[in-house]
Write a structure and sequence with these properties.
48% helix; 5-stranded antiparallel sheet
Length: 345
């Protein structure tokens, strides 16, 4: 069971990184992230941990070995299996709003936006528009199928969700986007500042900060006072660069994983995935990067921080990967440098 949980946690982090990062990365020619990409990334960051948790209860007797032997991604196979079971149950219990919402989130993660729209349509209709999460999910699915909806029906639905649930983080995020697109930057700023008071996935928090920075630097817009930043409970600040002898061995388009463990060989506490370079890289691991919600990186003693350049793009170490590690003491709370100076045999 422990191995199963560790695999699930690693797959959750990897899935979010693999799916959300390409959506959030600006185009090489410049410009901002489009509404469809922003919505897809937001849904993925919010939904993947929930779906992994739900998938365990739906498929707790699933064996990972057959899927791996067949060359399939076990997380995708398990999620598809769960979706099939969920569709069968909903055909017998069509008034299950929570089930329709779960189906919509699952389909979104798999990229089946038509199924996601159909599922959220059911959730919205059967809740008679009185479920804020169903309203937001329905609006998201409309945009994922047609970006033009962000200025039409989806915009109206996002505004409806903000009115219904002013503390709903997704409603605040999208409500800010809708306000910004219609030129009401003051309202967009107000909603995004309020959003920063909530627990957010790291990628979404970064997007909010970037949007607020854009507004603050726009001439003629008075900045809104932002709340003081909360004290970091578990924050690891790291500078990373390869040893001079290994710089030439870093493959093009390499992927860097920054991992924190409690003790040598222990399970990962937190993981961050980024494109490798340019060097030196400065990264931060926080409690929001934890493999399990509610886990704090800080505590008694130290953690081991590993920086690994993955040739395969996978978080598991394989022969030829470059890596380095260092011990981080939370009592010192000072940034550390990880020199990538070793090769996985």
């Amino acid at each position: 069971m422990t191995v199963f949980i560790l695999i699930c946690g690693l797959l959750v982090a990897l899935t979010i990184a693999l799916l959300a990062w390409p959506l959030l990365r600006p185009a090489p020619t410049g410009g901002t992230v489009g509404p469809r990409s922003a919505i897809a990334a937001t849904v993925i960051a919010a939904a993947v941990p929930l779906l992994a948790f739900a998938g365990y209860f739906w498929s707790s007797d699933w064996s990972w070995e057959p899927a791996a032997a067949a060359g399939q991604h076990p997380g995708a196979v398990d999620l598809e299996h769960m979706i099939g079971q969920l569709q069968q149950r909903l055909s017998r219990q069509p008034d299950d709003v929570e089930g329709w919402k779960l189906l919509g989130r699952s389909a979104t993660v798999l990229g089946n936006y038509v199924l996601a729209r159909d599922a959220f349509t059911q959730a919205y209709t059967r809740s008679e528009g009185n479920d804020a999460d169903a309203v937001v999910g329905y609006a998201e699915s409309l945009v994922l199928n047609d970006e033009r909806a962000i200025d039409g029906q989806a915009a109206q639905l996002f505004e409806q969700a903000v009115t219904m649930a002013p503390d709903n983080t997704r409603a605040l995020w999208y409500g800010g986007i809708v306000a910004y697109r219609r030129g009401d930057t003051a309202l967009a700023q107000q909603r995004w500042v309020e959003l920063q008071n909530h627990e957010l996935p790291p990628d979404l928090r970064q997007m909010v900060a970037e949007r607020l920075s854009e507004i603050d630097t726009t001439p003629g817009i008075a900045p809104v006072a932002k709340p003081p930043a909360a004290a970091a409970r578990g924050t690891v600040r790291v500078s990373i660069e390869p040893a001079a002898s290994l710089t030439a061995k870093v493959p093009p388009q390499a992927v860097l994983f920054l991992i924190a463990r409690r003790g040598a060989g222990g399970p990962p506490l937190a993981v961050v995935r980024r494109p490798a370079g340019p060097w030196p890289m400065s990264l931060t691991l926080t409690d929001q990067d934890a493999m399990r919600p509610g886990t704090s990186l800080s505590g008694d003693g130290t953690v081991t921080v590993i920086a690994r350049i993955s040739r395969s793009g996978q978080p598991t170490a394989s022969s030829g990967d470059l890596y380095g590690e260092v011990s981080y003491d939370f009592k010192a709370s000072a940034p550390v440098t990880v020199t990538i100076d070793r090769i996985v045999p």
